[in-house]
Specification:
The chain has 74 residues and is an all-alpha fold. It has a domain of 28 residues. It has one helix and no strands. The longest helix has 63 residues. The chain is rod-shaped. 0% of the residues are buried.
């Protein structure tokens, strides 16, 4: 009876250690992936801001050139 109890406790402790290790690895991997996604998100945001600035400059240019004949635009 005592051997069975010790065996069950040992199995429980080994399972607990395995679960804690697995959870830690999973959490670390998730954190790394979230950091990569965060970097990608900020890179896309900066590209979008650059495109918005270019669009604003282009729209401003076209609005100031609307009264000029098309032959003078070249």
């Amino acid at each position: 009876m005592d051997d069975a109890l010790v065996g069950c406790l040992l199995l429980f402790l080994v399972s607990l250690v395995w679960f804690i290790g697995y959870h830690t690895r999973t959490k670390r991997g998730h954190y790394r992936r979230m950091q990569q996604l965060k970097g990608l998100f900020y890179a896309l945001l900066s590209k979008q801001e650059a495109l918005n600035q270019k669009t604003a400059i282009s729209n401003e240019f076209h609005s100031t050139q609307s009264g000029v004949p098309s032959s003078h635009l070249l």
